[in-house]
Amino acid sequence: MLYKFKSKVSSDVIMLEPNGRQILQIWGKFEEGAPAKGILLPEDMPAAKAALEAAIAQEEAQRAQAALEAQASGEDTHVPGISLRQRAKPLLDMLQRSLKAQKEIVWGT
């Protein structure tokens, strides 16, 4: 399953279900068993953006700590996987454009 995020002022952003669910959980917009569609209004975007940026910072701190621990034990310091920052970048751009234009973001599967 895929999530598609849409805005009138930006290109669509398509994410695999686990990644889209993660974003919606960060935004506080995911409820287990609820329909997999919704809307983010312009007045909710500053809080959504701040929550996403905080989650990115937290993940980056965890990844840095894991690299330090690996280095201390003589292991490979590369932390595998795609970071939340990389996955969320298109949505952060969409948030900024939508907020500036005062247009909502909608999503669905």
Task: Give a description of the structure.
- The structure is a single chain.
- With 109 residues, the protein is α+β, with helices and mostly antiparallel strands.
- It has helices at residues 17-27, 45-72, 84-101; strands spanning 2-7, 10-16, 38-40, 105-108.
- The protein has a four-stranded antiparallel sheet.
- Helix 2 (45-72) runs antiparallel to helix 3.
Summarize the structure.
With 109 residues, the protein is an alpha+beta fold.
Low-confidence stretches: none
Helix content class: 40-55%
Strand order of the largest sheet: 2-1-4-3
CA-atom Rg in angstroms: 16 Å
Note the run of SSEs as H and E: EEHEHHE
Secondary structure tally, helices: 3
How much β-strand is present in the residues?
A: 15-25%
Largest sheet: 4 strands, antiparallel
Quote the distance from N terminus to C terminus: 7 Å
Shape: elongated
| DSSP strand tally | 4
Which structural class matches the secondary elements? alpha+beta
Q: Average pLDDT value? A: 92
Explain the layout of strands and helices.
Elements: E1 2-7, E2 10-16, H1 17-27, E3 38-40, H2 45-72, H3 84-101, E4 105-108
Antiparallel strand pairs: 1-2, 1-4, 3-4
